[in-house]
DNA sequence: TAGATTGTTAATCGATTAACAATC
DNA sequence: TAGATTGTTAATCGATTAACAATC
């Protein structure tokens, strides 16, 4: 809403973090906050916060600061958390089950409407109130329910094949936990992908520990 | 090794990704690669690849390209994947079990030596060959085995308390999956933290889908 | 040697920080 | 009004890209 200048990629990447911190403040009953105070909490400069928040409309007030609730709602709206998009989960192994149970989809702009797996032992079970179906049933399911997004918790060997099938079935967005890098050039096909590489983060920790431990000598 | 100029933060953040792509090439039996070819595979410019790889020593050869295996080993060494650091997992719920089973710690610079949970139903069980102990046993365990890193798959309400106990017990690095932002200022205490906010990535996908779908009109 | 491809410098671009006038 | 704090411009910093000489 409001004026919406150009929101840079760097700002977009920070929005979820702002959203989390503002939510935390709301929980604590804080109704207004200055850029300086928020900067202390988040560990970024007040200058950057003002620059960032000003990208999408003048929600601050000189001499007062920002209204936490207004800002929170505005960021939710920019991120699209104020609507829900239908999503299906492919792969109900350890990781898939953890994601299904752990993630608050409804508060993140999604609704989990189907789960699919190859393992006969899982098919017919229910996870978070959602029936686990055979992967054979992906296409007929999509013809009826038209999910917009898919969460991939499957081995990298089958990611290419499954994602191609899903794209054919009309899926537009992927949250990909498999180790296969779903190609970025999907963008040209009108597909968006968020690859989650948990092991990248573990390797970064390894690097940081290495650096830390060698500094200590 | 070699000359090691200053490796910038931006480069460090890309190293795990380089490492994954080079590993993939090795699997395919590729022994040499040019910056141009790698740039096509990874979706970044050849210029950036040369700039990046040159930060840590002249591993390329004019007219030839890069030796995939040499580069792979070099990045592993920079990230510290060529040694193993002892780690414990706190929280053996859905997410903890998924992380324990799913993650190849040994190939990422870590060795999982202990798992802790509060749930009596889990204590005494074994996950990936590692015994689940009561969280009461964290301190005595640490006195004997001195783990360097801890993986936190626990509710955000207990993260502060547990992490303080672990720091007192000598833990230096955290891989934190709880929704609590382990403070960055830990760095001053000689502690490193990698926070994994899976929901941030889901919110980013929500934003990208919103943008994509609104463009289509 | 000729062709390929790096290493490296210089130019560009974008993001962060500093500063302060505007204004609540 | 005086004090606080934003909005916004200008300055700085760092990262990316382009270009080409060096060299395998």
SSE blueprint and pairings:
The structure is a homodimer of 217-residue chains.
Chain A: H1 9-27, E1 32-33, H2 35-42, H3 46-55, E2 60-61, E3 65-67, H4 68-79, E4 85-90, H5 94-102, E5 110-117, E6 126-127, E7 130-134, H6 138-145, E8 149-152, H7 156-168, E9 173-176, E10 192-195, H8 198-215
Parallel strand pairs in A: 4-5, 4-8, 5-7, 8-9, 9-10
Antiparallel strand pairs in A: 1-3, 2-3, 6-7
Helix pairs in contact in A: 1-4, 2-3
The structure holds a DNA duplex (24 and 24 nucleotides).
Function (chains A, B): Modulates transcription in response to changes in cellular NADH/NAD(+) redox state.
DNA-binding region (chains A, B): 17-56
Binding site for NAD(+) (chains A, B): 91-96
Notes on the structure:
The structure is a homodimer of 217-residue chains. By secondary structure, chain A is an alpha/beta fold. Chain A has two domains: 9-79, Winged helix-like DNA-binding domain superfamily/Winged helix DNA-binding domain (Arc Repressor Mutant, subunit A), CATH 1.10.10.10; 85-200, NAD(P)-binding Rossmann-like Domain (Rossmann fold), CATH 3.40.50. Chain A contains eight helices and ten strands. Chain A has helices at 9-27, 35-42, 46-55, 68-79, 94-102, 138-145, 156-168, 198-215; strands spanning 32-33, 60-61, 65-67, 85-90, 110-117, 126-127, 130-134, 149-152, 173-176, 192-195. In chain A, the strands form two sheets. Chain A has a seven-stranded mixed beta sheet with strand order 6-7-5-4-8-9-10. In chain A, strands 1-3-2 form a three-stranded antiparallel beta sheet. In chain A, strand 8, helix 7 (156-168) and strand 9 form a beta-alpha-beta unit. In chain A, helix 2 packs across helix 3 (46-55). The termini of chain A are far apart. The model of chain A has no long low-confidence stretch (mean pLDDT 93). At the A-B interface, helix 1, helix 5, strand 9 and helix 8 of A face helix 1, helix 5, strand 9 and helix 8 of B.
């Amino acid at each position: 809403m409001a004026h919406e200048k150009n929101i840079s990629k760097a700002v977009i990447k920070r929005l979820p973090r702002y959203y989390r911190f503002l939510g935390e403040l709301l929980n604590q009953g804080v109704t207004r906050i200055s850029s300086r105070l928020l900067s202390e909490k988040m560990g970024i400069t007040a200058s950057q916060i003002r620059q960032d928040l000003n990208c999408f409309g003048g929600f601050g007030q000189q001499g007062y600061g920002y209204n936490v609730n207004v800002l929170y709602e505005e960021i939710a709206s920019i991120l699209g958390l104020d609507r829900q998009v239908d999503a299906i989960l492919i792969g109900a192994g350890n990781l898939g089950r953890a994601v299904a149970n752990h993630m608050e989809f409804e508060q993140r702009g999604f609704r989990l409407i189907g789960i699919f797996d190859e393992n006969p032992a899982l098919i017919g079970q229910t996870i978070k109130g959602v029936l686990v179906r055979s992967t054979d049933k992906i296409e007929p399911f999509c013809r009826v329910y038209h999910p917009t997004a898919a969460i991939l918790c499957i081995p990298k060997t089958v990611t290419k094949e499954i994602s191609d099938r899903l794209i054919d079935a009309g899926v537009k967005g992927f949250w990909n936990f498999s180790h296969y890098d779903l190609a970025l050039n999907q963008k040209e096909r009108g597909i968006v992908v968020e690859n989650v590489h948990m092991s990248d983060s573990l390797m970064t920790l390894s690097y940081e520990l290495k650096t830390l431990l060698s500094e200590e000598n």
